[in-house]
Amino acid sequence: MNDRHVALISAFYDALGQADFAAMESCYHPEVSFGDPIFQEVDGRERVMRMWRLQLGVRNGLKSAYGDVTADDHSGTAHWTARYTFSRTGREVVNEIDALFRFEDGLIVRHHDDFDFRRWSKMALGRPHGLLFGWTPMWRKSIRDRAAQQLGGFQPA
User: Fold this and answer.
1) 5 near 73, Cβ under 8 Å?
2) What Gene3D superfamilies does the record tag this protein with (predicted)?
3) For a tag on the chain, would you pick the N or C end, based on fewer CB atoms within 10 A?
4) DSSP-assigned states of every residue in 51-95
């Protein structure tokens, strides 16, 4: 167990819970990459932080909780829960997420979140779309393309 890396992951989630972008950014290496089932690959601290600003801007009232943080000298894991209202539909989402981290120079250089896309789509989009289409590659591509387009055009305040 590497206590310094456990503290780094905890500091990141504490900052996320407070939407403290400066503190979140301070946890990331300049060469960080982020991935999840929607924003598949985002590279570089500036773009990753733009993605978080976008996410927190469209997720009304994001509340997060985290636990099960483990880390060694090279990698770490955590489980976190994101609770928010999905802005496009007004539906409540409770997303259970498993996170993987890799460290370099005492900072997070790789952050990957994994969650059940089908479960998320049922909560975020409701019926029938989320239930019927949440598992199809075409629907996933549509959601991913929209997210990439939003990230490309997003200008933080």
Assistant:
1) yes
2) 3.10.450.50
3) C
4) HHHHHHHHEEEEEEEEEEEEE-SSEEEEEEEEEEEETTTTEEEEE
